Protein 1
Amino acid sequence: MKKPYQKPTILKLQVGFLREKKSSLSRMVRQEIDGVPVAELVEKFGSPLFVFSEKRLREQFRYLKRLFEGHYPRVEFSWSYKTNYLDAICRIFHQEGATAEVVSNFEYEKARRLGVPGDQIVFNGPYKPKEILRQAVLEGARINVDSLDEILDLEEIARETGEKLRIGLRVNMDTGIYPRWDRFGFNLESGEVLNVARRIAAGGKLEVVGLHCHQGTFILEPEAYGRAAEKLVDLSQKLENDFGWTIEYLDLGGGFPSRNRLKGLYLPPEVAVPPLSEYAEKIARALLTRLPAGDYPLLILETGRALVDEAGFLITTVRALKRLPDGRRAYILDAGVNLLFTAFWYHFRVEVEREIPGPPEPCVLYGPLCMNIDVVEESALLPPLARGTRLVLSPVGAYNVTQWMQFITYRPRVVLVTEKGNVEVIREAETLEDIVRREKIPEHLK
Amino acid sequence: MKELRPIINSVLNSYSGILFLARPAAGLAILLFSVLISPNLGLSALVCVSSAYLFARILGLKEDFLRLDFYIYNPLLVGLSIGYFFKIDPLSLLFLVLMGIFTFLLTYGLSSAFWYYFRLPVLSLPFVVGSLIAALASYRYSNLFVKSLYKFPTFSYFSLPLWLEGFLRSLGAIFFMPQVMVGLGLFLVILFSSRIMALLSVLGYATGTMIAYFFTGSFQEAFSNLNHFNFILIALALGGVFLIPSPKSYLMALVASAIAVPLTEASQVFWEKFGLPAFALPFNLTTLLVLYALGLSGYRKLTLYYRGTPEKTLDHYLTLEKRFPARTWEVDLPVSGRWLVWQGPDGKFTHKGPWRYAIDFVITDEAGRTYAGEGLRLEDYYAYHKPVFSPVTGRVVEVVDSLPDEPPGSANKDYPWGNHVIIYDPRGFYAVLAHLSPGTLKVKKGDWVVKGALIGLCGSSGYSPEPHLHLHLQSGPEIGSPTLPFVFSAYLKNGEFHDFSLPAEGETVEPAPPERRLKQTLNFLLGQEFEYDFFKNEEFKERFILRVEMAPDGTFYFTEGKGKLYFAQRGSAFYFLNFEGPRTSPLRYFFLAAPKIPLLLKEGLSWEDYLPLEVSLGPLKKGLYLFILSFWPSFLKFKARYQALNRFDFKGEITFNDEKIKTTVRLAPGKGFTEIKIEKVNENLSFRRRTNHEQESSL
């Protein structure tokens, strides 16, 4: 067979690569997702296309559950809705035993609509409209209070219902992480938490039964969780002693990283991101050494990204080729930052649907928007791609299908590759009708 | 008069105690028989037993202690035997007093020794010794008025079949009154108290005597041998008293009655040489021998706590002992998360012989593998470096922390246990955790650890082809002492709550740590009161107040005035232990609806429990059921299944043969039960707590 023509290039010889069974190049090829060929997916469901793997979702959940429960006897995973609140995805996690962590009336209603009972919902967030707060109270949700005004709201609801309400306090603290997320909840070091606790006790309408803290997002320092756990245990013991409350749960929030390559980090995620087992160990060790043996509060973890990110793929197609003035190659994809909000934080793994001959060279991946910011990847190392080549971007499971925009173009289909290998549409592509349905034209403009 | 009652009761109990009944009324009946039919006999016995009792009081022994009837039924029997031979006069009275005191001391001493060395009851062995001594001594005491030298009138009975007469006379012979009327009276007393015993007495007598008939060839001789009362006692003791009544205990009773035949004959021949009666020696020897052998062989259904009749013992066994096995120690699961029982007791690899009661744990994934990746590194194994917790509260007596973790696939044959911790539990045993990872132990020798305290991390040291945790209880402080059986106080298996049991090999378990809120919700304190409205078919019936009170033995109970409902928090669950009281007491519905509440309710969690018969049966029906159950243990399926609806609600379904009862319970997050509903075929009952916010807010 005649070999296709290749442009002559000079390549640096890298000995290490040769010794590997798989060269780094062939590793950048993805022909299928959970056994379903990429080409088939695109043919059937179009491009761009979000693909989620049920197998990976369940496996990752079970892995995390096994991991944390192996270290601490009472753990509850509360699926962080904002990460990805597609019904099908939530259902999978609820089936696996996760409760729901919601931060708004919309998310609360979505969880209830999915059949999650109120007492299996953790209600966070800085603004909980009073109506939904009342509903959550009546339905027995775990409410983590963010501000003093919310406490006043809750006291009013307590007066209405005539019963003492059990609430959680959201606490922010110094765990050595920068930037500190100190706008949420009450500060620990300044003594604000204790002041608030005194106020709550004096009010006599509420009882604190839980403590919550969320240090930030994509936290790469497992020890920070250990410190947070220690501080929460100390605080809970102080509250129990001073006010006679029983702290039933400690909620360490989320922020656990996925194996995604954060911008600004030089090292690949396999090296830079500590394994989740280290987080589990640090948290459990802090709790087990500080708590009286056998008397364990529930540990709630609001994992989102760590569960879903690596189960999500975006298939996109090269729609046009370009050469930039500086000589770099550039490709126009049919998916841009409108669909990939996390492109602002991550360098995705870019895989090509088939092995393409030719040396890899740096190139830029642009999205379809006529906006300068629409850059999916500033410098990918790819062999020369022909128009119509499909790329698979990952991990894209977290935050994208919630923060995506209907901007300039339609949002595509989302499919789920089931455990049996079937492909199910879990969100249909948007149509013009979807977008204009809510619009109204005033009489004089008709 | 009130102070006299316990004394009278315990004297009367000593009469009924000879027949293994703890019923003063039965005792009174027997006392009256003895005094009416043979005043000489009856009064002698009374004198002997009273002197023993008084002496015990002088020793300072309390009523509670003397309620154990065998302490004074032995002097009673000796009194009967003396009364049988000698006429009452001042001299024989003195003799009675002396022998009463002697027999009491003998009983006191022997029972303690028997229990200490053999874990056996003393039965009527002191009586055998005491009456032999009395008989022997009286050879020299010519001043005693020997009754048998002087004819006393005997009634001639209306004609009864020989076998019946033989049985009744043998029954009477237990009390030295081998007369048909006495036997009939005693049989009625037995029948009235316990149908199981009545049956056993007939079966035991028939088996033994028929075999004696085969050997001797004389029907007449076999059925008129009064020593055959031994068969009756053996059948009673083994069939219904010291073993839990069951087909097996009945079989044991029959076999023992049969093997006692030659023994009875032999001892009769032997003692006749000395001109002495054989007394109850065959009964004592046979029963003790069988009991000792059963104890050694680990027979599971030995009676631990005899409740007065075999029926009551069976009921107690079916409920309490089935719910809380008392023969094995319970410990906590020493791990967190889901672990697979890789090798259980009597396992296929190493849990053999004296080390058979042990468990090896590993962690597996959904595919059943114990490791991720290729399993070449220790870190690949899920169990590796997972925390290990103390299963007991006690003192650390040994710590080995320096052996290396063996790489997967290899094992250290020189130090098979690897790094281990031995903890002495004050209940009297040692708990061993083995194959820990070096340098991870958080305890040192001499430390006091509580249940659930972090001990170290799971490793692969010692004879450990892959990281796993080994747990056993042993009798001695050195590693490798013989192991002891144990159960876990609570664990979850496939979403089901299990307690006081052991998972089987290949099953996956996880600990069931109690939730802090529920622990408080169901922590009832002395003097707390809860007011309930009782509705029947939605119609208000009555209002009652539940009060928490404490029994003398330290257990707590609810009472509304009529019944008592005992409860306790044990391990990870709240239990209703026992219900006492009339059937009209609403408390039994509380028992029905919530015999056990795991302190970690959560949607979908389910559990099972056994219910005592009295919570749904009247006394007559209950007796009948127990009688049938003793033959046919699976006759009655009185199981209850419960399932949590959420953190504070659960429902139950009780299947009682064909009848189905549905229950729902709502707990108050603050304290106690908010509402209990019982749905029967034809009626709906509900108990609603009257809200009192004062109590809630004062918490």
Note: The two ends of chain B are 46 Å apart (CA to CA).
Protein 2
Amino acid sequence: MKVRSRNLSRRSVLRGAGVSMALPLLEIMGKRSQAEPGAVTPVRVAFFYMPNGVVQRSWHPESTGRGYDLSPTLKPLQHVRDKVTLLTKLDRVKVAGTDGHAQAGACWLSSAAPDELSPAGYPLKMTIDQIIASEVGKDTAFRSLELSCNPYEDNRESVYFDNISWYGHGHVARSLRDPREVFNRLFSVKDHAANKSILDVVLDDAKSLDHELGKGDREKLGEYLESVRTVELQIERVTKRQKEIDGLDISPPSKPWQAMARDEFIQVMGDLMILALRCDLTRVATLMSAPERWGSPLMVHGLFNKPVDHHGMTHGQGNERVRRELEALDKFHVEQFARLVIKMDSINEGEGTLLDNVMFTLGSGISDGSLHVYTDLPTVIAGRAGGAINPGCHIKSPDGTPIANLWLTMAKTMGVRKTRIGDSTGSLNLA
Amino acid sequence: MVLMAVAWSEAKSFDYHSVRGRQASVTLNGVYEGESLELKGSSRVQGMKGFGPNWSGDAHLLWLGESGQKMETGFRVPGTGRYMVSLQMTRAPDYGIFSVAINGKAVRDGVDLFSEKVELSEPVDLGEMYLEEGLQKLTCTLTGANGKARAKGGRQFLLGLDFVRAVSLERKKADKVDALPVHVPKSPRRQVSFERIQPVFAKYCHRCHGQKGKVKGEVDLVRLSSAQAYASDPVIAKKLLAVLEMREMPPDDELSPKEADYQALRDFVEGAISDHLRKENTLPPVTLRRMNRYEYNNSVRDLLQLEGDVYPLPEKVIRSFRKYYDPASGKFPDSVHVGNRALGKNQIEQHLLTGVTPFAIDLQAEHGFNNRGDQLGFSPILMESFLGIARALLGSPEFDGYSALTAGFFSEPRGLPRNEWSKLAEERISVFLEKAFRSPLEKSTLGRYLGLFTRAVGAGGGFEPAMKEVASAALASPRFLYLLERKQGDDDPLNTYELATRLSFFLWSSIPDSELLALAGTGRLSDPHVYRDQVKRMLLDYRSKALSENFARQWLRLDRLITAVPDFERFELYYSRIGCEQWKLGLQTMAEPLLLFESIMVEDRSVMLLVDSNYSYRTTDMASWYRPGVPFKGKGNRGRFGTNSLVYTRQAVNSRREGGVITCAATLAMNASPLRTSPITRGAWVADVIFNRPPPPPPDTIPEIEADDAKIEASGQTLRQRLVEHQVNPSCVSCHKRIDPLGFALENYDAVGRWRDSYRSGLPIDAGGTLFGKSRFEDAVGLKDAIIENPEWFLRGFSEHLLAYALGRKLELADKPAVDAILSDAMATRGQFSVIVQSVASSYPFLHKAMAQNPVNQ
């Protein structure tokens, strides 16, 4: 990051690899927004995805309740253990006929019931983050933010492995992979404003097409129409906040992501996400630490001296050495999450910190990768959600509790008026 | 499939290398050879064979003169009306600059024929014109010469005219495509009655499928008690066809039917499927497709007439260093000079135009391509990308020198007062938008873009920025970004504009050019001769390289090689041997199968060469790959790798262990793991890519196998023995019996694709197996023989892949008649490339959006 040198001394700088936050500025922003009459600090929601499940025996703590013992894989959370909630025994139902991994990622946040299948065969419809965004994204510059630290350029897997956020079953909320692109999207106000006149023309183009198309194609064109409308609103709202954004005085990540180590990549993306949440540019974000399956070996710097195939390892965990390596990789992901949680906790906001006003969920759509098991999904929530969550506990749900109960609870917390999501049977008590 | 018997008897001895097209000498409609035109003044005919095989008729018209002098000749058109006229010229070091007139009217200026070497020019487009029936006067006036051109005798320069092309644009009576005949093969399949086949089913199938409550695989055949019953159960019929085609049933340990009974079973099932399709034959509609990243690049390049790509694309595995792809020549060069960095992944960091970066790649469907509407979504981020790219592109400092529209569409009219701009703008914008949107322009649409222009100018902006605003909007419009196909009756064919667009996206991954659009506009595209001519012309155009870059690359799943990481210590060769893990020598192998594919396209050979070819394109470094005896000479010499370009030369393949796409280093290496081969991955790849019969997804419980073959071999077992040992579950066995032999056949190739006679531990390699329960083979060569002896298997797979790619959707049972038709054309010509392409382009699903009356073979 580049901060003007004369300012450096009076700034505490939270360092990521390429982008970082200049905290005092954010504090100024915070004060300003509080000065507005009637301003309430909003609750924000974010998701952090780990692909391919986790080694079961090293994930689950023996004890429950407050003061439970952190399991080996969860150790990186020890400094924030009072600020996170561990949830176990939350299940999904796997639907036969489609790939276990594609379903794990694409349908993790799905609001479809298991028997509600899309034409592609997945129980996939609007995901919970987008349901929440429909409610709380009305006021922010960006409806939602989708990020992926997918480093692969080999086109190996389909769209279902690379996205956890969906507007609808066949309508992906495409994730951004390049931190510089994310930065420009969030903070280059001018780029947005210049497009206004063009949007008017193409929107009319799309509308005039509508009557010429058959039903299926009209639906497909709907994706376009909706995108244009979203971008139009975005321009309006970003423009309103132009001054503040210009005043942030931050510069884009200096390193290309291709040159970043794994942890660096994830942290830079995480920083951008935190920045967007902190500045209230959006209230909903998803971050994939890596895509599902994708059996291409990948270098995880500092952990292994050779590229490893995460997915392949999950099927080899019967071997002691492989399992130990896999545990290290699981722990690596938890550590990345923990570092972001700590960053959130170090940002003052109102009386507390940013962490107090978020609901930041770590999880995977599959629990045991070796057997493609969907029950007892690894789930951790960081933050107090503005008081809706009383963290520090390990909550073990009764057998057969659908994870949709958690999504329903979150949706309610965020003000979504729903009594049921997918196969949910009720809410969870997190308070 | 019934054709199998025909081809079978002689296939063994047939050499597919003898299939060779002579595309270059095939004349298209409306071509007037320079050497046959009237010769006046100094004009004469010059034989051009000595300069290469590229000249049509191996000759051109040669003229010599001084500045101001004219080459005059003429050509006769058959009828009065509008024509699209172009010239194919020759370029050479002593050739001049000319202006061109037709019937005394100037139509083109500044045609510079200078080139350092003697070669064909790009077609010189003279545009649309109205011509009366009979003789047309063509005049080329020497107006000057390029500074570098060398004059003859101090003042004289030359002109070479290979041919004139005048394509009639006259409207035909109907402008619907229904005039295009759909190819339906007369199938020699025998009618097999239920009475004839019932005992065969009873004898070989019923015991496991229906008798005594035993219903394996949920297939109950006992309950199907008539031909109609089979015809009304397409799910069962489809399953039956698949297992019979591949001879998976009855299983090995059961009684096996005689050949005649096998044939009868198949004929019966085929008949049942035909009966079913005659009643219920709705094709799945093609879902509205957005351009993918590759198509967007090509379309913008062609619309804005850019010199090259919009952004560097990793999809382009081979970056042309010197232009080598010239399909009109009919001969793929023996030596190919290609960009090298493209073979690595870093090229994405380079920029062609300041500030222009590509959006994220569109991912391939699980067993398909990345041009499927159902998977190509739209989102706010993408909208932002399209807006951003257009703006960055048109605003980049390099743009004006990069686009041929700078001097035309965008240029401010000299001397025209500001208040008269709009009329000119309207003319230019209509032409531009018609090309961009590939359809007649509605007044209201034109009005919107004109409004944009007027507002930009009204706000005090200049002509050029306003035109750029218009272009930016067009590039973000759904009419540009989507392949729009209008709502119509169930079995209505596409209109000619939609057909032109489908065709150009199939063959070029881009928008139609002016000629194709003009033929769409007049409806002449639906004339079968014109249509076939266009397919031919498009294959001969350099843009057909898209079939290699976009189709072949995805079909072979070649991208997987990018992330292949054979163990650095064990497979040092894969890397550079200069101790650098980043620079992978192995990536050089990625171009090999693509160059083979391109040579088959350009020389119009048989696609069977993709299974087994006696030549291949390789770099010198790759010799040490395929020849264990050849030492790698480059050790320690970094400069040797030439970071800019590599030379691939056409080499005779001496051993049948090499050649084709199955036994080439790239596909073998990408389907292996770091420390050993991965026979199941290789087998699944062969089943999917070569036969288009992908295995079902693996079950949830996959037993682990050691990642390092050294450890397996240390226990005295081979990888094959270990894998078999692990197949405890009968359901595993039945599936693996199909996949594994295809992979084990390749077990003589190590994890980077080098031949080995035995495992490193000395254990013997067992590469034997049976193909589709029918053809026994002992090794990879035997596998290739088995495929060549049954060409139908590969040709069907290839035809299906190509049709699915052309349509941008998944194939269904209802597509079977179309596939059968393509297959019969392919079989009849022994897999000649252009024939398969023509057949796909003329197939019923390609000509229709959705359909109700699929012609079914009788």
Note: The mean pLDDT of chain A is 87.
